[in-house]
Amino acid sequence: VSNDLYPNASSPLERKDSGVPYVRQGLKVESYNDFDPLKHVIVGIADNQHIPEQCPASNEKIPADSPMRGGKAGRRTQETIDRANECLNGFAKILENRGIIVDRPGAVDWHQRVTTPDFTISSGFGCMPPRDCLLTMGKSILMAPMSFRSRYFEYLAYVDLLREYFESDPECLIEQAPRPRLSDDSFRMDYVAAYEFLSDEETMARSLRKEYSTKETDILFDAADVMRLGKDIFVQHGLTTNLAGIRWIKRKYEPQGYRVHTLSFEDNHPIHIDATFCPLRPGLMLLNPHRPLFKGQREIFEKNDWQIVEAVSPAWDNPPPLCYSSTWLSMNTLILDHKTVCVEATETGQMEQFDKLGFEVIPVDLRDAYAFGGGLHCATADVWREGTREDYFP
Ligand code: DAV
User: Which of 134, 210, 240, 265 has the fewest C-beta atoms lying within 10 Å of its C-beta?
Assistant: First the structure.
């Protein structure tokens, strides 16, 4: 795929004749949480992004009154792509100016139909947001088994980078979760059909019963449903992560000394934990006041003297046009170390709250990239944070 079409993608790797990428000296893969000093990160790009046709998993997330529900599928306009890239490139620059290494995803042709023996859909999605796709667990990076059909091949945007990480850090392991089928059997198709006629009360009642359009047929999770806190891993059960997915995470990582916990929130569209319950520094969590934790789930935090503060209201009443996420991207921030946080520049209330909590706040202009897949945390994926695997919940 030509890089001319994807000017913001990472440039093709330099490789030996055998195809092996050259080693990038000093490169390290390691991260155990979202708040230790950030040294190396991937920032998404908006190049050539599409709005795919609806699929059974995406339908449940898209607001009923959104044009994306109907015939909106197609390439996003070049003007919105350019503006989103301006934001993402500016964010990357801010990080680089602070000495953080920034990589960008590689070029993939998202225009092509995505077809497997089990399904077909109009196009791919894009390589925003990397956080959904890549799960960095210690010295390994795992490509997640995502539930949107349009995102089935999204990992391809990271294959070359990950190959380079593998070659450059002798301890780094690149892994892939079992691939789902995403056939009609993977979804509650009757629910999908009925969805747009359900009231908020009805969708909330279903969500509280833990009934989603995704069934337990496939092993499914998005990496953004996984919150890493040293030895403890908290996974949200919701639209994008099913119980089989959580069982797989448990079986994979518990033998490595991790403890895996399931979390649920009173939320009628529970997708991704990073605009719902966010670690800020050791001992401090930020909770979305509209999405309380299920009963009994605060205990592990409170017993271990972690404070849970409620996030202030977002600055905006509505998300930007053609956005999949809610206004609560206000609390979707990127923490650079225990005292420094990047916050979207229009979220003045959220910035003030961080200031009062003792953080240096770096405003980042990113709202015009929200529609491409989320906020500052979504738009990034950890490669290396300094620090070790701590036991915060002994
Ligand atoms: O509030 O719409 C967005 C999370 C994106 N990773 C929300 C969840």
Answer: 210
Instruction: Name the active-site residue from 222, 225, 267, 382.
Output: 222
Q: Is the pLDDT of residue 351 over 70?
A: yes
Which of 236, 326, 333, 372 best tests ligand 1's pocket when mutated (most atoms within 8 Å of CB)?
A: 326
Q: Which CATH class is domain 38-385?
A: alpha beta
Mean pLDDT of 234-253: 97
Do 330 and 344 form a contact (C-beta atoms < 8 A)?
Answer: yes
Domain residue limits, the chain: 38-385
Task: Return the sign of the alpha-carbon dihedral for residues 9, 14, 17, 18.
Answer: negative
- pLDDT classification of 88: cutoffs 50, 70, 90: very high
Please give the number of the atom of ligand 1 that sits closest to the Cα of 378. 6
pLDDT in the model for residue 70 = 57
* Ligand 1 centroid, distance to 272 Cα (angstroms): 6
Nearest to 7 by CA among 41, 40, 45, 49: 45
- pLDDT over threshold 90, residue 197: no
Is the overall model pTM greater than 0.80, yes or no?
Answer: yes
Ligand 1 atom with the smallest distance to the CA of 324 is: 2
Q: H/E/C letters for each residue in 116-170?
A: CCCCEECCCCCECCHHHHEEEEECEEEECCCCCHHHCCCCHHHHHHHHHHHHHCC
Asked about 323 being catalytic, the answer comes back as no
Active site residue 87: no
Q: Give the Cα separation of 94 and 88 in Å (integer).
A: 10
ipTM over 0.90: yes
From 222, 241, 272, give the residue whose CB has the most ligand 1 atoms within 8 Å, as the site to mutate.
272
